[in-house]
Design brief:
It contains 13 helices and ten strands. The protein has three domains: 121 residues, Butyryl-Coa Dehydrogenase, subunit A, domain 1 (Orthogonal Bundle); 108 residues, Butyryl-CoA Dehydrogenase, subunit A, domain 2 (Beta Barrel); 145 residues, Butyryl-CoA Dehydrogenase, subunit A, domain 3. α1 crosses α4, α9 packs antiparallel against α10 and α11 packs antiparallel against α12. Strands 1-4-5-8 form a four-stranded mixed β-sheet. The chain has a four-stranded antiparallel β-sheet with strand order 2-3-7-6, with no helix packed on it. A two-stranded antiparallel sheet has the order 9-10. It is α+β, with helices and mostly antiparallel strands.
Length: 390
């Protein structure tokens, strides 16, 4: 037994796998073609207790911590789901934590009146599956440089007037509200705040749905803000504290992406092993050839090593350790393992692996974003270099 393999967490795995088998697998191909996950799936996931995993019960969550969230993500993919499904169904994992933290992390007596109001208006309904939230940070002329955000929020009495644009926003088409990073000083000053902006607010428009290489069931959009008036009560925390809030949530986001990476690698190994056992060429199964067996062994080793390291780092984050460098390494290790393994898995499937009917083809496409989202591989390397004194 390990910290991620307890009786309770085994039950969580079983619950997650049952949900995927019953509610996801019969429909995932249709969702991929439709370009989004139906809203009802959020409500169903909430009813069985999966949507709120990792959020305190005091704010409407199901309890648990980062490790429980990792188990759900891992099992969704290993049961036949996809990282695109995780992105679509659990976008609140990046849209809500800032609100929960500003309200005292769900602790009684720690929340401000404004923080409690945001919990009631946004957090509880989202964890119940009745609202969908998104996080808007990235802008058309900037990616990983969060401090350079140019979307402005000018104070005007009891409101902010927001102008600017965002892009690559996950769940941006379906979202009922967007937790938005804005500059509350001059553009690019780094003085950031977070505002919750409701869909339908005058001047807030959802632009074109962005067509992507992968994550087809996860809708992605461009957002535009033209003189959008947002109540000051929709600000998360104090003014000009947004940059720190964003940075503090990066560890969980990066470990989620690392989990998606190693879980995709594990699932791809499983698919490749099954294929190589069943597929016969020149009179014997592919798995009967030493070259193929050794390739599968190497793929399995890479996936399992990445999983072990991500779990180790996640346990330290869950314990409150400031392991910024290790989180960056965990993400890069898992992403590199995934890239190698899914490529080999598709190769072993031959021509079938290139068809949209093949599950491994979906994982091949979906995996490419994992080294970009949440901070690119190059940005992770800069963090690692800084961590070793360079």
């Amino acid at each position: 037994m390990t910290i991620v393999d307890t009786p309770e967490r085994r039950q969580l795995r079983e619950l997650t796998r049952a949900f995927v088998t019953r509610e996801v697998l019969p429909h995932l191909d249709d969702w991929e073609r439709a370009g989004e996950v139906p809203r009802q799936v959020h409500a169903t996931a909430a009813k069985v207790g999966l949507l709120g995993i990792g959020f305190p019960e005091s704010v409407g969550g199901s309890g648990g911590d980062l490790l429980d969230s990792i188990i759900v993500t891992e099992e969704i993919i290993r049961a036949g789901g996809s990282s695109g499904l995780v992105a679509a169904l659990f976008t609140h994992g990046i849209a809500l934590p800032h609100m929960v933290a500003a309200a005292g992390g769900g602790r009684a007596g720690a929340a401000t009146a404004v923080g409690s109001d945001l919990i009631e208006r946004y957090v509880r309904p989202t964890l119940a599956g009745t609202l969908i939230g998104a996080l808007a940070i990235t802008e058309p002329d900037g990616g990983s440089d969060v401090a350079a955000i140019r979307t402005t929020a000018r104070r005007d009495g009891d409101h902010y007037v927001v102008n600017g644009s965002k892009t690559y926003i996950t769940s941006g088409v379906r979202a009922d509200f967007v937790t938005t990073a804005v500059c509350t000083d001059f553009p690019g000053s780094g003085e950031l705040s977070l505002l919750v902006i409701d869909k339908g607010t005058p001047g807030f428009t959802v632009g074109r749905r962005l067509e992507k290489l992968g994550w087809h069931c996860s809708d992605t959009a461009e957002l535009s803000f033209v003189d959008v008036r947002v109540p000051v009560t929709n600000r998360i925390g104090e003014e000009d504290t947004g940059f720190l809030a964003i940075m503090q949530n990066f560890a969980a986001e990066r470990l989620s992406l690392a989990t998606q990476a190693y879980a995709t690698a594990q699932r791809s190994v499983e698919l490749a092993v099954r294929w190589c056992r069943d597929r016969s060429t020149f009179g014997r199964p592919l798995a009967g050839r030493q070259l193929i067996r050794h390739r599968l062994a190497e793929m399995h080793t890479r996936a399992e090593a990445a999983r072990a390291y991500v779990h180790q780092v996640a346990a330290r984050v869950a314990a409150g350790e400031p392991v910024v460098t290790e989180v960056a390494m965990a993400k890069n290790v898992a992403v590199a393992a995934c890239a190698e393994v899914v490529d080999q898995a598709l190769q072993l499937h031959g021509g079938y692996g290139y068809l949209r009917d093949a599950e491994v083809e979906r994982h091949y496409r979906d995996s490419r974003i994992l080294g970009i989202g949440g901070g690119t591989t190059e940005i992770m390397n800069e963090i690692i270099a800084k961590g070793i004194g360079l």
